[in-house]
Amino acid sequence: MLILYNLHQIVQIVDDEEMECLRGDAMNSIKIIECENSSLAIFCDISGKIGALGTYQELIKKLENLYIDVSIIKHVDCKGGSVIPGLVDGHTHPVFAGDRVHEFAMKLAGATYMEVQKAGGGIHFTTQKTREASEDQLLKDFEVIAKEMLKSGTTLLEAKSGYGLDMETEIKQLQVLQSASKRLPLEISGTFCGAHAVPKGSTEEAQTKLIIETILPEIEHMQKSGELTVVENIDVFCEKGVFELESSQKILEAGKNIGLRANFHADELHPLGGAEMGAKIGATAMSHLEEISDEGLQAMSKTGTVAVLLPSTAYILRLTPPPARKMITAGIPVALGSDFNPNAYCLSMPTIMHLACVLFRMSMPEALVAATLNAAFSLGRGKTHGAIAVGRVADMVVLNTKKWEHLIYRFGCHHMVIEQVIKGGQIVFSK
Ligand SMILES: N=CN[C@@H](CCC(=O)O)C(=O)O
Ligand SMILES: [Zn+2]
């Protein structure tokens, strides 16, 4: 049990357990409680959920009425700061070996993402390194990243495989996520992304067949036996010259048939019609969408599929920004992800929110909703995570500023602002 006290602002986002995402204008009217004498407090109960919030005095009365001995509860003095929900990163590729710093130089010199990949670099380079690495080494490397993510305020993470492309290495990556989710306080929603690229020496058809007939059945078997409970989503890099619409749809549907949520890369580099196809098959979420068509926008707004936008990638690859404003106006739930991977080496969701504001013209409240409640919704957790409300999981980030907006405003300086990170009612980072 834990009590946060001396809070100036509690940024709840929403104040109930029912609202699972915010759309349109509602993304700008987030619920914030403020108190001039900074006497606000939050109680995290024994099950790691938000038990109560309000002024400290109100809280104490409530707890005494429940015969809870307040003196034995750990108190955290927030010194007049603010608190926001734990950040949710809706899209990452965090399990890999090696780096691609040399490719950054090539891209700065003018090479495009697909040119690097066609020359054997990009995902192929990382796949080779990841195949060669041991599971232990991958786990050690991922733990370093995961700890940095927690320090940056991320408490729930979508994390993909996709640098194995063969059965052995894909399962190895998923097992790393499985072990990490047991060892670390970072909550992980794992994604099988065996269709991240067509492996060297194979074809789109052969890789599609391998995924549907061999790897997915193995994942299903390991899920049923309890060995791979971390896998919740299926992903495909649905892109011209990689996995076209037909194979992408087949793979996503096969994943859905074993209970995975379709959550995939769509319309990043070409307007392929991925958004239309995803809406048609009932995808939960689609990422990137820089090249989405107006028809795709309409289709997504009808089905309520989440658009997971990735500002660091658009920035690094100098892509046309996705039409975030049109998406919000059309009522599409917009979420954010860091897309942390060897091409876009940024894991800080505060930085991602800043980029979303400047590059995609989102407001600060919209960016925060996208990096909390709406990202949680894209991972099937819209009713339990992503907001500070009684009954929800107590995932929170304590800031040392009266106004929460400092976390976005101070570009690249989130470490100056974040004091504590709380996951399930436990302090998992303290400055
Ligand atoms: N576009 C496909 N996949 C990743 C990049 C992965 C990589 O380049 O290693 C993305 O979302 O940006
Ligand atoms: Zn990605």
From TrEMBL:
Domain of life of the organism encoding this protein: Eukaryota
Family under the similarity heading: Belongs to the metallo-dependent hydrolases superfamily. HutI family.
Listed GO MF terms: imidazolonepropionase activity; metal ion binding
GO biological process: L-histidine catabolic process to glutamate and formamide
EC numbers, comma separated: 3.5.2.7
Cited SUPFAM superfamilies: Composite domain of metallo-dependent hydrolases, Metallo-dependent hydrolases
Pfam families: Amidohydro_1 (PF01979)
Gene3D superfamilies: Metal-dependent hydrolases, Urease, subunit C, domain 1
Descriptive protein name: Probable imidazolonepropionase
Requisite cofactors: Fe(3+)
Pathway given in the UniProt record: Amino-acid degradation; L-histidine degradation into L-glutamate; N-formimidoyl-L-glutamate from L-histidine: step 3/3
Domain named Amidohydrolase-related: residues: 83-428
Enzyme class: hydrolase
GO CC, one annotated term: cytoplasm
Catalytically driven reaction(s): 4-imidazolone-5-propanoate + H2O = N-formimidoyl-L-glutamate
Keywords: Histidine metabolism, Hydrolase, Iron, Metal-binding, Zinc
